[in-house]
């Protein structure tokens, strides 16, 4: 009798916690962000295109001026950020390869630029090779250490990343502050991560640097959302848009608040449909599939997933969507073996707890709960604070009847409903 009463109390407590994490008053208001949805022009995009036209003419007239290639590459990279069109990312790579070949891979600046392009393409091992090449040349060591930190974090080389961070230690340096913020986020210390990002923001404001303001405001939107500071998150997304009215990332953040916090699916879809017209990427279909799943509209969910895969089949995104594909395939036992194959590739690309989580999750969905547990315990448990990873971990524990290990994870997951999304509410309660 006691266990029944205890379970009832726990279930009721969980319900209360979910209610607190759920809708407790409207935060977003159309009047705040509608002006950014209604914008017809795109000044940042137009500026980049004009710069490309200018420097291309200069390069055509003087093809011996190698520096023009880097200027062209920089503006194609800005077009990619602005539109999400991956052809601009590949054009950037083409120009940087040409530039590096002309310099015979002796210019650390262009080597680092190519490495950053490879990071965007999720070609992390190639990026690391280039970063080490720049390091061996010996010029601009601090900038190269920053690059090495970024690559090592992507690859799960956390000891090396910490050493890179020690090398660039300077609390007055914007680049150091955003990286120490990322490091603390990795450690699960969101309060400290936000604190360092706030300091970076102050530097961006003091220097009146538009791109750095956009970077810090949008990241503070994310970090505060993860910390449960939803209203603060919303205001930082608005601050991002005030600086860059076409910033689709901030608008997507607002759409997530509409969906995950306010449960306003209609408004979330309205925002997504508007921004996807000017920043068309596959992940918007995934967002809409999540919403359809929440609405229990299986047909609409499958339709959005169909559009997602059609886009991937039409456009070559390389390994950029491997994680999402693994999670989608793992949902269905008929395609779980596909999830396993992609997870194996991801581990080769980046042997992080995140990648091993995909592998464990694939095995779990194939019915091999023992193998899933062995992988999760060795490579995932205690190595990540990502809510979705820890939800997978708790689910695998449950399948292996390790109830004692679930309780502390469940407590943290209940605090992360906003980040996970409302589709996880019931799943967490029944863990």
UniProtKB/TrEMBL annotation:
Q: Where are the TPR repeats?
A: 214-247
* Keyword terms: TPR repeat
Q: Quote the PROSITE patterns the UniProt record gives.
A: PROKAR_LIPOPROTEIN, TPR
Going by the entry's taxonomy, the superkingdom of the source organism is recorded as Bacteria
Keyword Glycoprotein present in the record's keywords: the answer is: no
In terms of Gene3D superfamilies, this protein maps to: Tetratricopeptide repeat domain (1.25.40.10)
> This protein is called what?
Cell surface protein
């Amino acid at each position: 009798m006691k266990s029944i009463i205890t379970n009832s109390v726990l279930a009721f407590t969980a319900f209360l916690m979910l209610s607190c994490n759920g809708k407790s008053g409207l935060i977003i208001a159309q009047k705040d962000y509608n002006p950014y949805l209604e914008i017809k022009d795109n000044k940042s995009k137009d500026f980049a295109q004009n710069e490309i036209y200018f420097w291309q003419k200069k390069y055509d007239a003087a093809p011996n001026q190698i520096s023009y290639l880097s200027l062209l590459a920089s503006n194609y990279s800005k077009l990619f950020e602005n539109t999400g069109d991956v052809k601009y990312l590949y054009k950037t790579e083409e120009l940087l390869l040409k530039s590096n070949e002309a310099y015979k891979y002796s210019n650390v600046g262009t080597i680092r630029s190519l490495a950053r392009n490879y990071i965007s393409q999720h070609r992390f091992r190639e990026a690391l090779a280039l970063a080490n090449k720049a390091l061996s040349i010996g010029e601009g060591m601090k900038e190269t250490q920053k690059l090495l930190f970024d690559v090592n974090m992507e690859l799960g080389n956390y000891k090396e990343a910490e050493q890179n961070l020690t090398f660039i230690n300077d609390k007055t340096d914007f680049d150091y502050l955003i990286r120490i913020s990322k490091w603390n986020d990795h450690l699960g210390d969101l309060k400290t991560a936000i604190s360092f990002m706030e300091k970076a923001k102050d530097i961006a404001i003091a220097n009146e640097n538009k791109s750095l303001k956009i970077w810090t405001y949008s990241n503070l939107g994310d970090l505060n959302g993860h910390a449960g500071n939803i209203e603060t998150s919303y205001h930082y997304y608005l601050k991002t848009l005030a600086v860059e009215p076409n910033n689709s990332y901030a608008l997507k953040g607002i759409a997530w608040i509409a969906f995950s916090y306010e449960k306003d699916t209609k408004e979330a879809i309205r925002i997504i449909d508007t921004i996807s017209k000017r920043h068309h990427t596959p992940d918007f279909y995934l967002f809409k599939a999540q919403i359809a799943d929440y609405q229990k509209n299986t047909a609409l969910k499958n339709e959005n997933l169909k559009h997602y895969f059609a886009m991937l089949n039409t456009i070559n995104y390389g390994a950029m969507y491997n994680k999402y594909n693994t999670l989608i395939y793992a949902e269905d036992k008929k395609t779980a073996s596909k999830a396993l194959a992609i997870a194996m590739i991801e581990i080769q690309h980046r042997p992080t707890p995140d990648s091993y989580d995909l592998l464990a999750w694939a095995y779990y969905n194939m019915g091999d709960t023992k193998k899933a547990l062995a992988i999760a315990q060795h490579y995932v448990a205690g190595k990540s604070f990502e809510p979705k990873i820890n939800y997978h971990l708790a689910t695998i524990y449950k399948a292996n009847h390790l109830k004692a290990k679930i309780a502390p994870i469940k407590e943290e997951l209940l605090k992360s409903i906003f980040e996970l999304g409302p589709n996880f509410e019931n799943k967490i309660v029944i863990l």
